[in-house]
Amino acid sequence: MSLLNLLKNNNKIIINTDLDGVLSGLLLKQYANCEIVGFSNSANKVWINPKKINSIYDAVYIDLYVPESSVTCIDQHIIGADDLHNGLISKNKNKLNPNLQLSRSHTPPSVYKNKYPLGTVHFIISLLEKDGVNIDLDLAKGVSGQINLADLILRADDAMHTTVATTFKENADTWWTWLYHLSGKGKLTNDLIAYLKTTSPQKAADLKSQTTTFLKGAPYYCESGDGGYKSIITKEGNLKKTLKFYVDMLAKALDVKTFYFGQEYKTFEGKLHRISLTENEKLELIQHNSINGQKIFSYAFIWGINKEGYFSYTVM
After folding, report:
1. What is 265-280 written as a DSSP string?
2. Residue 175, helix vs strand vs coil
3. pLDDT per position in the chain (316 positions), as tens?
4. Class of residue 69 by CB neighbours under 10 A (exposed 0-12, middle 13-18, buried 19+)
């Protein structure tokens, strides 16, 4: 499972418009020679640079699962309905996901509750270190007020709060240990773990509040506390300046190069559905990656089986 070898086949990536996606994209650009050619809001929209790719299926998706077999995805969502489904997906080497590695699926509930609880960026850091990449980051580097770079990286997918201040701590610790061994005992992965061990639940709660205020404030104006945007394009088809400010800030914090914002983007908009699967729909998903005859563009099991609307999928 070499990330660098996989990305040699296609280094053009589409990243999510949230903290996890942007951090992942900037690190892959810096350390894996990737080119960011598009964005997704992880719901119903994909934006691509038509001068770089022709189709929404031409790039590697970061932090979004796209079941199309030819598409490479690096994400951390629950994508297998059950262990059998996980096994079928795992046969496709284009799909990198920690829940495939340790076979965490939606059912039974005893397996789902032990799903990967961290961000795609933390998985990517470990994969890069596994491939021998030295990711030289100053985690103590100040970003704003009491917030440092480590706090931003660990805000992705609420990793710090999950690890330190919730009842899922034991599961999070298990996955951090897994990432540490996956990385080949990589320095950055170890440093993140060490930082978490010095963070109290109260400090984690305070930092979550502070980073939310920071990301939602000027000049970034993120629409969600985890640094996400639902829409990033102006009427003229250009990326909004708020996103540029956001990416530039994160690039500076990581001490990596940002990327060019001058190009126009083409919007693809689909329809987002959230349902609870019937047995027939589950079987159709496993066999055909479709629901009621409609091809699924992306999907994830976002809640446990006892919560209504646990299956989220998008049709383009």
Report:
1. -EEEE-EEEEE---HH
2. helix
3. 799 999 999 999 999 999 999 999 999 999 999 999 999 999 999 999 999 999 999 999 999 999 999 999 999 999 999 999 999 999 999 999 999 999 999 999 999 999 999 999 999 999 999 999 999 999 999 999 999 999 999 999 999 999 998 889 999 999 999 999 999 999 999 999 999 999 999 999 999 999 999 999 999 999 999 999 999 988 887 889 999 999 999 999 999 999 877 778 999 999 999 999 999 999 999 999 999 999 999 999 999 999 999 999 999 9
4. exposed
CA distance linking residue 115 with residue 109, whole number of Å: 10
Say if pTM beats, i.e. exceeds, 0.90: yes
Residues with Cβ within 8 Å of residue 257, at least 6 apart in sequence:
29, 30, 251
φ, ψ of residue 17 in degrees (nearest 5) = -90, 50
C-alpha pair distances (Å), 12 with each of 15, 19, 29, 49, 237: 10, 19, 9, 11, 20
Specify the 3-state DSSP secondary structure of 139: coil
Report d(CA 34, CA 198) in Å as an integer.
34
Q: What is the largest CA-CA distance in the chain?
A: 53
Total residue length of the chain: 316
